Amino acid sequence: MSRHDPLVRLKHMLDLSHQAMRMMGDHSRSDLAADETLILAEARAVEVIGEAANHVPAEIQAQLPNIPWRKIVGMRNRLIHGYDMTSIDAIYDTVLEDLPPLVRELEDYLSSHP
Asked: What's the pTM?
């Protein structure tokens, strides 16, 4: 499988989502705010998820209508281009609230598209 294969991109999104959630663990917002390494790691994971999402073709995105593609790519853009304005809350909320449903959607899709 080529790294440009859409399934590879979806697997990257899934793997990074799992990693981000695992890294966050049971850390609180204040834990995240106090740990520069964790902030950078979480931000990078979310950036890569957004970059991979940006390369998933529209026809595949259409098969996954419950994934908020524009929001995911928008968060990536916000982290990359608005790096000086991104809040800890946005990263924390993304990892804890947005990634679990993304993982479910990706796991369901990938289980039927090996």
From this structure: 0.92
